[in-house]
Amino acid sequence: MEDRRPSTDPNGSDPTDRALIRGILRFFVAVALVGAIVFGAVLFAPTLVDDIGGVDEFESPDGVDIGTQPSPSSDPPPAGERDPNVTDPNDPNESAYEADVETIDSMTVEDFVHAEVNDRRAEHGLEPLEWDGTVASVSRAHSYDMADRDYFDHVNPDGEEPMDRFTDVDDYCRGYGENIALTYIDRPVQNPDTDETDRHETAEELANGLVDQWMNSTPHRQAILEEDGVPDWDRAGVGVYLTDDGEAYASHNFCREY
C-alpha cells in the first residue's frame, strides 16, 4: 500500500529529523543521569550504647567477655597508589587514633576496607575493583569535611554532590557513586540495622564494621555488588578520617571511566 503520509509536518520539518533529534536528546539525558547517580541513602550511624535510654554503663551480651581484647590487626594487603598525580586540595592525608589495643591509622583502615569489599564482590562472582588514588583523595576530603563541619550526608553544606566534588578535581568518570558511613572506635555501639552491639578496637575490626554497615543496608549493598541498575564499576577509592574523639568517617566512592 502506498504511504500517503506527508513527508513534512505543517511547519515544514522532516519527521525523520525530529525522531533523530529526540533520540540524541534521550542519549544525552541518559548519560547525565548515569553521571549524577549517588548510590545508597545515608546510613544512620551506630548509636553509642552509653547514649541509649540513659544507660550509664555498658553490660555485655550473654556469653560475651568484654574484658578480652582482640589481637592487633594483621598486615592488610596494600590497596594501591597513595601518591597520585592529581589529589583533592582538601585531602587531610593520614589521620590516627590511639586505641587501647593499637594505634589505628586511616591508611590501614582504607586498605582493609578495599580488600574486604573486593572479597564480598568475589563471593558474588564480581571482578575486584582497582584502587584509584585520586578517587580515594576526593573520598578522604569528603570524610574530613563531614567531621570538620559536623554533618553526615552525600550533599555538603555548599550543595555539592559526589560527582561535583570529583569533577572539581578531575574528570574521567562517566559514572560515579558513593557510600558513606560513620561509627566509633573503642566504644560499644549498637548497629541500627542488626541491633547487635559492636566494639571496634583495631583497624581490622573497624574496617569490617564499616563494610558490614554497608552490606546490611540494601542501597549500599547494591552499590558494592552492582545490583538493580548500578553501573559496572572498574575502580574505586576509600577515604577514612579519624577524629580525636574516636569518630570514624568513611567515604567509599566508585568510578566507571569514559
Automatic annotation (TrEMBL):
It comes from the Archaea. Residues 59-95 are annotated as: Disordered. Residues 116-246 form the SCP domain. CDD domains: CAP_bacterial. The keyword Transmembrane applies. It comes from Natronorubrum tibetense GA33. Keywords: Membrane, Transmembrane, Transmembrane helix. The chain crosses the membrane at residues 27-49. The lineage of its organism: Archaea, Methanobacteriati, Methanobacteriota, Stenosarchaea group, Halobacteria. PANTHER family: SCP DOMAIN-CONTAINING PROTEIN (PTHR31157). This is SCP-like extracellular.
